[in-house]
UniProtKB/TrEMBL annotation:
<dbReference type="InterPro" id="IPR036188">
    <property type="entry name" value="FAD/NAD-bd_sf"/>
</dbReference>
<protein>
    <submittedName>
        <fullName>Lysine N(6)-hydroxylase/L-ornithine N(5)-oxygenase family protein</fullName>
    </submittedName>
</protein>
<dbReference type="Pfam" id="PF13454">
    <property type="entry name" value="NAD_binding_9"/>
</dbReference>
<feature type="domain" description="FAD-dependent urate hydroxylase HpyO/Asp monooxygenase CreE-like FAD/NAD(P)-binding">
    <location>
        <begin position="5"/>
        <end position="148"/>
    </location>
</feature>
<dbReference type="InterPro" id="IPR038732">
    <property type="entry name" value="HpyO/CreE_NAD-binding"/>
</dbReference>
Amino acid sequence: MYKWIIIGGGIQGCCVATRLLQNKVSKEELLIIDPHPEPIWMWRTLTDRIGMAYLRSPSVHHIAADPYSLKKYSRSNDYAKAFKGNYSRPRLDMFNQHSLDEIDKAGVHYCWKQGTVNGLSWSKNDWKVRMSGNQVVKGERVVLALGVNQEPHYPDWVSEYKASDAVSHIFDLDKPLPDQGDVIILGGGMTAGHLANTLSKQETINSVHLVKRHSIRIHKFDSDPGWLGPKYLTKYYQTDCYKKRRSLIQQARNRGSMTRDLYLELNRQSVQGRLNLYTGEIEEAKLIDGMIELMMNNGEIVRGHSLILATGAELAFPGKEWIQPVIDQLALPCAPCGFPIVSRSLEWKAGLFVAGALAELEIGPVSRNIAGARKAAERIAQNA
């Protein structure tokens, strides 16, 4: 039986794992279960897919315990243009290699098990985690570090076209990105912006059309830095009403926004005639002779050979289909929004901990991002 089982091997799970393995837990006592072959595989795949060059988060946000670790790493490995802007946003390739080196140093690969979890139950003094193929492993403590990318969000009008080869979601890794013709990208946030910028520079693609519901919203980060410390969190923790906490989280997140430098890059591509920007609601969509037509509420019609949705993930409880029986069995406390009510140490009940999206009612608006992963890892490691 393991002392700790972490379900999810993305940024969140690996951040918790590396912290636990630092003089807290031995490699033999820890198991990480993830459907992918390697740590942070989904993160690396998606960021590479959209052509991201620099992260949105600052240099102190990474999986190592020392906040200045990435700065030191850039100097010791002699990276050119390692950081960008006033907040020292790191190069993606450097951030990823630093993460992988920290993961290797901690011994995460030794603890890795590729598999899909489909059941969880509590029995006397241990947790039983069931995986596909009816494999069962036992642990004293479990961390739910589930990502949210498994459930891509599709607008209602897309439903009848989802089966078409011409329509895909950026999270649908089974469908390759188009490399020719006229491409429509739907979305107004960082993912859509990076993808539009990347594809508009490909010579084999005729044109790129970025369609968004609203004008481009420019924000340095996906939430105000005040949510990292007492400036906003003091009042947040004084709020006992979880319905109000959920409202504060929703208000704090700069959803569908992008950084100024990405916005300027898109404008540059637009001036050069490689990118067309559209703003408005889609009233009707048609698929005619292999071409997609989007009719907008301002009368414009956007045509393309392919449509890529960069509309994010569903705002859903990750893993709920197999976590719900545990909630019912143990009467685990949940807020009106359905998400866990946990202690300050992120313990839900009886050695069951949460990180990432499932911890956001305790961590706050930054819970899903790298800064949230660091906070979760620190709190959970204190219980090791």
